[in-house]
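$ ./design --mode recover --in tokens.txt
reading tokens...
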């Protein structure tokens, strides 16, 4: 048996999860068994626990998308990993547990100077940001880019990757503290969307043309307004629905301006083609080890304190990543 965090949502009590004893995961032939040292909380955990997540999950499940730890055992068809290796990975079940089993294609060796905390805090957001910038959008040097939720986990990582491309970055944020933070991370213009209309700001700042790329994780009206500030030939990448609402689109929004909409889901890739994420994951860990990419950890909590972490995320008060130790 082992300790794990189990989904148990009760809005009235601000409860998201409870701690419980569950069976240790079994080890498949192509899997690696990891003793978790650090796991992280992601915004999608909050959505999943509330039942708003696009991918179906069991009614009761262990949350957590990413973790780092030590290899305890390897399945008979696994090559390249052995007991004692320091790794990070995307577990099959949830990451908020003492032990997890991970598909070996979704397990990544840690560079010597990368800590378990740093690796766990960046794996999911880092791989997503890297794939968004390099594959989904293919951002080119000096392009004009709009990043929504720019002070979030994916947002701050995207900003760092875009800065390396000398992009002109517009970021939207919910408060002054987040505004100052994204300016430190290289945003050319930080937009406080609660008091400023981001569409007006972008149209004005780009002389009426709009931006080349939009990264949208909010959906709903934000998606619809974003289309209005997308330049001809531009790309809007939709990769989340933090608002809980879908954004609507007319085919006429695209055809006469040669613009395109691209969807991205790292979860879908983990499921359908896990090996396709290896290059991006290893690149992110490498950038972390050479200090060309940084991760912002705001809190380190124990499994008993996870509800506090989820509440901070749901209230949008948290800045940086919350990491969890079993
Ligand atoms: N497609 C993928 O593969 C993939 C992978 C990872 C994450 N995601 C998605 O990417 C987004 C960012 O993930 P993250 O873990 O880095 O989270 P995060 O950005 O740290 O947190 C979400 C942020 O979204 C902003 N937001 C804007 N409108 C919102 C609304 N109506 N409700 C709630 N939040 C709103 C809030 O920032 P402000 O206070 O600044 O508004 C909030 O802090 C999430 O939507 C997540 O589901 C997608």
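writing sequence...
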């Amino acid at each position: 048996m082992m300790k794990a965090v189990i989904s148990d949502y009760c809005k009235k009590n601000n409860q998201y999860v409870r701690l419980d004893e569950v069976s240790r995961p079994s080890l498949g032939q192509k899997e690696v068994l990891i003793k978790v040292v650090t796991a992280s909380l992601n915004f999608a955990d909050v959505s999943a626990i509330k039942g708003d997540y696009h991918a179906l999950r069991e009614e009761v499940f262990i949350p957590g998308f990413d973790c780092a730890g030590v290899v305890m055992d390897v399945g008979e068809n696994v090559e390249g990993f052995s007991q004692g290796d320091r790794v990070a990975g995307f577990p099959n079940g949830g990451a908020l547990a003492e032990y997890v089993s991970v598909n070996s294609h979704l397990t990544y060796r840690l560079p010597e100077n990368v800590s378990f905390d740093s690796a766990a805090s960046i794996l999911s957001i880092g791989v997503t940001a890297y794939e968004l910038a390099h594959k989904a959008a293919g951002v080119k040097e000096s392009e004009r880019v709009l990043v929504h939720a720019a002070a979030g986990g994916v947002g701050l990582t995207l900003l760092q990757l875009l800065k390396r491309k000398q992009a002109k970055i517009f970021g939207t944020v919910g408060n002054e503290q987040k505004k100052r933070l994204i300016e430190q991370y290289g945003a050319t213009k930080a937009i406080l969307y609660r008091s400023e209309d981001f569409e007006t700001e972008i149209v004005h700042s780009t002389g009426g043309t709009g931006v080349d790329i939009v990264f949208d994780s909010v959906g709903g009206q934000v998606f619809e307004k974003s289309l209005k500030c997308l330049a001809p030939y531009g790309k809007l990448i939709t990769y989340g629905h933090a608002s809980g609402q879908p954004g609507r689109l007319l085919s006429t929004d695209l055809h006469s301006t040669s613009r395109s909409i691209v969807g991205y889901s790292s979860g879908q890739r983990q499921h359908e083609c896990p090996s396709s994420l290896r290059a991006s994951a290893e690149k992110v860990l490498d950038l972390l080890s050479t200090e060309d990419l940084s991760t912002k950890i705001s809190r380190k909590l124990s499994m008993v304190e996870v509800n506090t972490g989820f509440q901070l995320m749901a209230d949008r008060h948290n800045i940086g990543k919350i990491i969890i130790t079993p």
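exit 0
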